[in-house]
From TrEMBL:
A Pfam family assignment: TonB_dep_Rec_b-barrel
Keyword Cell membrane: no
GO molecular function: siderophore uptake transmembrane transporter activity; signaling receptor activity
Protein name (record): TonB-dependent siderophore receptor
UniProt organism field: Methylobacterium planeticum
Subcellular location: Cell outer membrane
Family: Belongs to the TonB-dependent receptor family.
Ranges annotated as biased composition (Gly residues): 44-67
GO BP, one annotated term: siderophore transport
Spans annotated as Disordered: 36-67
Membrane topology (UniProt): Multi-pass membrane protein
Residue ranges of every copy of the TonB-dependent receptor plug domain listed in the record: 90-194
Keyword terms of this UniProt record: Cell outer membrane, Ion transport, Iron, Iron transport, Membrane, Receptor, Signal, TonB box, Transmembrane, Transmembrane beta strand, Transport
Length: 736
């Protein structure tokens, strides 16, 4: 463990909230199914966009790693698997964990994976402004996209270069955010944490949902989600089919699109209470602008000259995945699981850039780029979970072997295009030749990891220990005629965490965890870069108010990532693995389900992330500087209120959110700051069953984001871009 000042961790004052129990009815509808998929839900007209889930293992879903969160009521989840690869109550996990449930995704009508974490502590998106191309999210100041910290059903979603699979949030049951290093269970990755997206899975209850959505920027979208038991299977088979079709523009205009087609079939076979096999698949096509940026004037000012061109501005991405989740219980205390997935992605991107503008601001000189990427990956995780006791100590042991492989092929071409007339802005009026693609380059990576974890409970103490050893090899082929450059890395990582049940529902804890990330390339001596390594100290307290669906958490953290790439002082044409970044701060979170359709989530984060022993490519020292684009303070809260059945306004649900994004630096030299901004979101919905029972299942909903149309820019790495303006989406929903 590195020598660092200890973190002062105190439990902030906890506000007790009370709620009334909901009346329940025997009928089952899509928005009323509980986590188990069999229990009835709130009464008609109680409001809320509920969820279907199989997260407890008593339905189609597996119960351990990859099975997703469970114990869900409204926005509150009591159990998650991401922190331990086993069903562990959130208050017992020795790291910060947040869960975004399906009901919260529904209420906010989340449209992108990055927006799913908008109200989660420690997580930010839009560091580069509006950019629908990638699911780029930062946790505790660290990028989880490029550091391979995004997971689907417990398996890593691998991306590289320009090719990253995108996640459609309508196809998700929940999103779990584990903050801090997770290499002790998952292998290489971001020191900031991981995001695990849980796919919608079959349940053994018939259900259905169709939606039609329309909004500004010519947005039209249709969603459907249907499933249930397979007829004639005697309750051993179930299916689910989810799909989305969207045609939309963007605020950029000029023919820029944000279109998508997604269809996700899933099938479960459960021949006995002890064995479950779930097939998961998806096919998706997206079309977004390949460039979303505007030309920057000196002084970190964003002009209104869009750098793209509608004649040459599309990023077309086709991706698919097929896989399965298998679980067999030899006994209630001995369970084997195997999760597998194959991903394929094919991408074509064409874009233009404005290189310079003349002094009269009449002509913009431009160039173009064209690339084609192919990415295939396979991930496999074998797990064995055992529960036993040694004297007074109760153990939950998870051990496993996993394997991940990806292969990326890239071809790129560049050229010059006709100048842009900035007076007439003749976008799309000139022919732009497609550049000739250069030779293909290929990058492959194989990873094998062996891990073991023990959660030991003795008295009021909860001790979590895990360790993992990884072997990672990577081959790089710059051109078909060049020699293969091979790089091999091994690493041992782990975590130790200790919690203590101070009182019912109150668990203070402390943990230490390590991480590593391989780095591609050679130094000036022709030696492969050693992996970037990181460690974290975290301490905090978690509180689940007994007898309620109200929970809160506070955590302090101190993360150092070492051996990151910086320019070599002896030869700036090369890099060396000698830099470091340190992130420290604290987070507070509260989530409550007060009544059906009435939920509250609050999140506050303070992050101080700075360079240590680092220099810029211009040779300037960055020591002590803050990393650009990462706000020091963020606050977010979202509240919904559903009028009770006894109210004259029954059936009506209202809600709103506040997102405060504090100041950050626009460049790593810390010369200019981004200004703080406060954004407001709103929700209003109505369940028509409150008018007449014959309208049961019909719901109208309007969501508005950035409702006061705050026009602001975000700068990072010295480049600035616009953010999304006010957006309104109306939805007509029918559930049965």
């Amino acid at each position: 463990m590195s020598n660092r000042s200890s973190l002062i961790v105190l439990l902030l004052a906890t506000t007790a909230l009370t709620g009334t129990a909901a009346a329940q009815e025997p009928s089952v509808r899509l928005d009323q199914l509980s986590v188990e998929g069999t229990a009835p839900g709130p009464a008609v007209g109680s409001g809320g966009g509920g969820n279907v889930s199989g997260g407890d293992g008593d339905t189609a879903a597996t119960s351990g790693g990859g099975g997703g969160p469970s114990g869900i009521t409204g926005y509150v989840a009591r159990v998650a698997t991401a922190a331990t690869k086993a069903n562990t109550p959130l208050i017992e996990a020795p790291q910060s964990v947040s869960v975004v449930t399906r009901e919260q995704l529904n209420d906010r009508n989340v449209q992108t994976f990055a927006d799913a974490v908008a109200y989660v502590p420690g997580a930010i998106s839009a560091r580069s402004g509006f950019d629908p191309r990638f699911d780029q999210i930062f946790i505790r100041g660290f990028d989880v996209l490029t550091n391979q910290g995004i997971y689907r059903d417990g398996l890593r979603v691998i991306g590289s270069g320009f090719a990253y699979p995108k996640t459609e949030p309508y196809g998700l049951e929940a999103v779990t955010i584990l903050r801090g290093p997770a290499s002790g269970l998952y292998g290489l990755g971001s020191p900031g944490g991981i995001l695990d997206a849980t796919s919608k899975r079959p349940v053994f209850v018939p259900f259905g949902e169709v939606q039609f959505q329309a909004g500004n920027f010519d947005r039209f979208q249709g969603n459907f989600d249907v499933g249930g038991p397979v007829s004639g299977s005697d309750g051993t088979m179930a299916y689910r089919l989810t799909g989305v079709r969207r045609e939309a523009g963007t605020f950029i205009g000029l023919g820029t699109n944000n279109d998508m087609l997604n269809i996700a079939p899933a099938f479960t076979w459960k021949p006995s209470a002890d064995t479950t096999f779930t097939f998961l698949s998806e096919f998706q096509i997206t079309n977004t602008p390949a460039s979303t940026f505007f030309f920057n004037d000196p002084g970190f000012r964003v002009s209104n000259y869009y750098m793209g061109d509608p004649r040459f501005a599309g990023l077309d991405q086709t991706q698919y995945r097929v896989g399965y989740a298998f679980e067999h219980k030899f006994t209630p205390d001995l369970i084997f699981r195997q999760n597998f997935r194959h991903y394929g992605l094919f991408l074509s991107a064409k874009y233009t850039d404005i290189l310079s503008i003349n002094d009269e601001r009449t002509i913009g000189t431009r160039d173009s780029g064209y690339q084609r990427n192919g990415l295939v990956q396979q991930t496999l995780d074998n797990q064995l979970e055992a529960r036993f006791a040694t004297g007074p100590i109760a153990h939950t042991v998870v051990g496993g072997v996993d394997y991940a492989r990806y292969s990326l092929t890239t071809r790129f071409g560049a050229g010059f295009v006709p100048d842009l007339n900035l007076v007439t802005r003749n976008y799309g009026q000139q022919f732009i030749a497609t550049p000739t693609l250069g030779p293909s380059s290929r990058q492959t990576q194989d990873q094998i990891g062996v891990y073991l974890q023990d959660q030991a409970k003795f008295g009021d103490f909860i001790l979590t220990l895990n360790g993992r050893h990884d072997w990672v090899s990577q081959d790089n082929l710059a051109t078909p005629d060049s020699a293969v450059s091979r790089q091999d890395n091994t690493a041992f990582t782990g975590r130790v965490g200790l919690g203590y049940v101070l009182a019912p529902g109150i668990v203070p804890y402390a943990s230490y965890a390590t991480t590593f990330t391989p780095q591609v390339g050679l130094d000036r001596n022709g030696q492969a870069f050693k992996p970037a390594t990181g460690d974290q100290i975290e301490a905090g307290v978690k509180y689940l108010i007994p007898g309620t669906n109200i929970q809160a958490a506070f955590a302090g953290f101190d993360i150092t990532q070492s051996s990151i790439l910086v320019p070599d002082a002896t030869n700036i044409s090369f890099q060396t693995a000698a830099g470091a970044v340190r992130s420290k701060g604290f987070e507070a979170e509260a989530t409550a389900n007060i009544a059906p359709g009435t939920n509250l989530t609050i999140a506050y984060t303070h992050v101080d992330i700075r360079f240590v022993n680092s220099t810029s490519f211009a040779g300037e020292s960055l020591n002590g500087n803050r990393v650009s684009g990462i706000p020091a303070d963020t606050y977010a809260s979202f509240l919904t209120y559903a009028f009770p059945p006894s109210s004259p306004l029954r059936g009506l649900q209202i809600g709103g959110g506040i997102r405060f994004i504090g100041t950050s630096f626009a460049d790593d030299q810390n010369t200019v700051r981004n200004t703080a901004v406060t954004l407001y979101d709103a929700l209003i919905a109505y369940d028509f069953a409150a008018l007449d029972p014959k309208y049961k299942g019909f719901r109208a909903q309007i969501n508005a984001y950035n409702i006061f149309d705050r026009n602001y820019t975000t700068c990072s790495f010295g480049f600035c871009n616009y953010n999304q303006p006010a957006t309104v989406i109306g939805s007509l929903i029918y559930r049965w």
